[in-house]
Amino acid sequence: MKENKLIKDIQPKSETFKIIQKYVLNKYTITIGMFLVWMIFFDKTSFLVINELNGEINKYEEQLQYYKTEYEKNDTFYKKLMNNKSEKEKYARENYFMKKPDEEIFILVVDSTKVAKK
Questions:
Q1: Could you give the CA distance from residue 61 to residue 72 in angstroms, rounded to a whole number?
Q2: Is the pTM of this model over 0.85?
Q3: How far is CA 102 from CA 82, 97, 98, in A?
Q4: What's the CA gap between 24 and 31, in Å, rounded?
Q5: Which pLDDT band holds residue 12 (cuts at 50, 70, 90)?
């Protein structure tokens, strides 16, 4: 009687094993699975590499947009500076400490040690 019970327990497992063997352990399924794993992780054009390259592309596109806006800003400033003599004089005085012959320039320097203590 115990033998019959053991055989009944083994019988459904063998049916399950046959289904697994038929569909999952099929040589075509294994080949397709190995191909997909290779393409996703190991190939030089794998999903991971393409994802990383897309991230770099996005970063460079953001940098390109930043430099375009900076170029436009500097271009308008340059045009404004070259067309207006008073703007050119103001820019030279503020950034290069240029002066007229009868003027004196005083440059004030803040002591950084006193500012840090406050």
A1: 17
A2: no
A3: 25, 14, 12
A4: 11
A5: low
* Token code pair at residue 53: 């390259």
Burial environment of residue 41 by CB neighbours within 10 A (0 to 12, 13 to 18, 19 or more): exposed
Sort 81 into a burial class: Cβ within 10 Å, 0-12 / 13-18 / 19+.
middle
Structure tokens at 50: 């393409």
Bigger pLDDT: 37 or 20? 37
Task: Report helix, strand or coil for 40.
Answer: helix
Pairwise CA distance, residues 55 & 73, whole Å = 27
Q: What is the pLDDT of residues 59-104, one digit of tens each?
A: 999 999 999 999 999 999 999 999 998 888 888 888 887 888 888 8
Cα–Cα–Cα angle for 54, 50, 65, nearest 5°? 10
DSSP-H helix ranges across 1-117: 2-23, 27-37, 47-83, 85-96, 112-117
Please name the amino acid found at residue 41: F
Alpha carbons 103 and 27: distance in angstroms, whole number = 92
